[in-house]
């Protein structure tokens, strides 16, 4: 549960804000026009922004495609570690 709280409260790049904002706008617009499939579609993108699983539905969170700003490895070192 602590990991989920950390993911929600930290690390808000522009892409994550866009997912949350546009997904939320899609949900609201779909609710007003009673397009229920659109609400599910918008909720998916809003949750991508809120819970930070932009990369393949959370499959990449914490794996090799999640990069750290302080990571000083080069590609050859990463290949050796795999």
Walk me through this protein's architecture.
This protein is mainly alpha-helical and 82 residues long. The chain has one domain (2-81). 61% of the residues lie in helices and 0% in strands. The protein has four helices and no strands. Helix 2 (14-32) runs antiparallel to helix 3. It is elongated and about 50 Å long.
SSE inventory with pairings:
Elements: H1 2-9, H2 14-32, H3 36-51, H4 75-81
Helix pairs in contact: 2-3
Summarize the structure.
With 82 residues, the protein is an all-alpha fold. It contains four helices and no strands.
State the helix count: 4
Quaternary class: single chain
Number of domains: 1
User: What portion of the residues fall into strands of 2 or more residues?
Assistant: under 5%
- What is the CA-atom radius of gyration, in angstroms? 16 Å
Secondary-structure class: mainly alpha
Regions with little confidence, pLDDT below 50 for 5+ residues: none
Q: How would you state the average pLDDT, rounded?
A: 75
Beta-strand segment tally: 0
* N-to-C order of helices and strands: HHHH
Outline the biggest β-sheet: none
Rough outline: elongated
Distance between the termini: 28 Å
Helicity level: 55-70%
Keywords:
82 residues, elongated, 61% helix, mainly alpha, single chain
